[in-house]
Amino acid sequence: MIKHVLLLAAPVVAAAVFAGVGFGAGGPGGTVDQLPDGWNCNPVVPIAGNYLHCAPPGKPSVADILAGNTNAPSIELRVFDFDTGVFAGTESLIRADLYRGQPCPQDNLAEWGLLPFGYYACHKFDT
Q1: How many domains is the chain partitioned into structurally?
Q2: Is the peptide bond before 11 cis (omega within 30 degrees of 0)?
Q3: pLDDT > 90: what percent of the chain?
Q4: Range of the domain at 33
Q5: How distant, in Å, are the alpha carbons of 6, 8, 9, 20 from that of 13?
Q6: CA separation for the pair 29, 49 (Å, rounded)
Q7: How far is CA 105 from CA 26, 52, 109, 110, 111, in A?
Q8: What's the rounded Cα separation, in Å, for the pair 112 and 120?
Q9: What is the pTM of this model?
């Protein structure tokens, strides 16, 4: 019985840990300044409107993608308002050759948006 409870609880605990790491110290309403050390927000310029895109430690950044320094199959980014630093949401990128027409329900789009550098994007916030 205890094994079953632990097996069922493990995904919940993992999701909670991931959420805490993903959003930084401020939780869902945090700011870019609250990200733990090691997050890569390069290039530090507004992208796709007025947003700063940040990659977790050890993962490819937007600068890596633009420079052609990665061919990661997918990338998860945290996105912040460029002027205020307030957390806007997350963005999922998938390499163009792996995209198979998945919907992007967060933006209510029939398809993800194709970016000029070989990835499709799905924003998990209103863009």
Answers
A1: 1
A2: no
A3: 57
A4: 2-123
A5: 10, 9, 6, 11
A6: 20
A7: 26, 22, 6, 8, 9
A8: 6
A9: 0.74
